[in-house]
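Researcher: I'm preparing a figure for a lab meeting and need a structural model of a single chain. I don't have an experimental structure, so a prediction will have to do for now. The sequence is pasted below. Please return the structure as tokens so I can convert it later.
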Amino acid sequence: MKQQKTEAAQQDANMGREGSIADSMREEIMESANIGLWELEFLAGQEPRLNASLAMLKLMGIDESYKPEAVFFYHRARIYSEDVALFLAYSDEIVNSGKAEIVYRWIHPQYGMRYVRCSGFLKEKSERGICMNGYHQDITEMMSFRKEQEEKLASINAISKQRMDIISAYSGIYFMSWIVNIPEDRVTIIKKPESGYEELNILQDGGEASETVDSVCSTCVVEEYREAVKKFMDYSTIQQRFEHEKRLAIEYRGRNKEWCRLVAIPLSSEDDGTLREVLMAVQEITEQKKKELENTEALEHALEEARKANSAKTEFLRKMSHDVRTPLNGILGMVTIARMNADNKSILDNALQKIDEAGRQLEQLLGDVLDMSRLESGRQELAHEQFDLHKLLRQCGDLQMPHMKRKQIQILGIHVNCEHLLVMGSPVHVMRILQNLVSNAVKYNKFGGTLELWLEEEEIDWNHSLYRLRIQDSGIGMSEEFQEKIFEPFSQEKQDARTEFQGSGLGMAITRELVTLMGGRIRFESRLGEGTTFYVELPFEICHTRKAVSDERPKRKVDLRGRMILLAEDNALNRQIVQYLLQDVGAGVVCVENGQEAVSSFEHSEPGDYDLILMDIMMPETNGLDAARAIRRMDRPDAAVIPIVAMTANAFTEDVNQALEAGMNAHISKPIDVPTMMNVIGELLQRE
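Model: Understood. Here is the structure written out token by token.
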């Protein structure tokens, strides 16, 4: 009995060693094939987790010290920017259809651009969340092997470049392809199915094409389509059919009732024009056929969406009319009051203050609408420059401080837990996100309420970090119904919100679009009557050294006595306003009404007559950009150095870049901020 126990224990030990060896061998095999396994979890209330095998961690250039949450953001941050949309669509396909496969580009920290094949399967989809798994394979070397195969085919068959492009394109899309040499009645296999469709193996490399037609039809095609496919594969009539079509195709049902498409493409001809080679290719289109039925429903849905879009357009115009007319009515009304009380300084000052507030409300509305339009059309450009996150937070707080004092809102704290605050990104747009969130936390807060902010950093790699911003208020909160549409344009919970809070309803829509554009995400928690907390995550490149450049212009009192300025502005009212502001600080001003007059006035002046040129962009005759270029090309000593400042309503990033590229020194956007204009002019003249 003792001997039997000893033998059993020995047997168990041997089996354990064999299992360990098998696991080790499997890991080595997968690693040698550049394959790693992964499991992705999106669980309610938790951060996304990417559990990766050792082989996959090695493929990504990291080790086991990375937590699954960090692995997820590390992997997402290194997807090649042009393939991000493709990767997101692949993830959606796994959730919707249960499985999907993709080939995308990924930036390895050591080896740079890599090609990755990733196959995923849906493991769980429930109230708890979503879980999927699959494999991650580096196929960069396989891509090189495919190129060698194409070169080999070109060498063996003496295929022209155009011919090779056709073969490569169709072989990449279709699961099987072959070339038929009509005069020699010979088949050359280009691509065989990787799996399934074994019945097509009756097509043999070097076999007789005419003899395989009947075999293919009887073996691979259901009876009702056999005659049509046989007629399609009649090579004796195919040249005649190509006289009217550049590509022939037929759809049929295969042995397993799957839908397939067989195509024929002419490849080469004899000197006399007789067709020599034809490329044949087969593609499964079962899913496409299923979608044909869905397309009918989609068309009906599209018509319904068009109806909704038309209704939305009407609603948009209605809301815009309200939002524009309200401050406009305030401006016109206060102008009337000011005229009636020109001798009463107190009433006059109050009217001017209200006019200023209404004008800024109009400016904000116009900016919101234009920003929303550019974001939805994909034309919003992000900058890539150095900035300080903490500094932006302070500036945002300073801007909101007067509003907080009026409502007696208490700041419980601004908690910053970051190792790196100097980052690369688009500070203007980050500031827009902060302003929208903080201003809402103030605007929709209660009188005497509280506000608290947190900023935390989580390292992705040595050069990148994920920054988490949390903004919590004790305000009016949101109903569950409104929470579902908070990110929709013009969404406001109360019908009188525009009057009470003076908002356009575009701020949160713009915020979400900007966060998404920067590769981040935004979410919130809210209870009606208790307050709201917003959570924003944004990835940034870390700046390890600070550039010796200040982004702040020193404020100075501008004295332009003795200075002569050429002002090019086609709008009489704008021209009068700027002329008054400049003359008020001692400048002499020569006004012209278009770009051609500006060029002519400068050309006929003596060097040194003008100290600076203020140039509108959109003007008749010659626009401001062309006028600036013409001045810079003049053969006179001051043409290349005289400061030219763009003063225009074209205020987007590309407008600024176009002005600088045209030779201008600075850009001032309309409506003109007087201190900014004076500061820019003073700085340029001091530099001169």
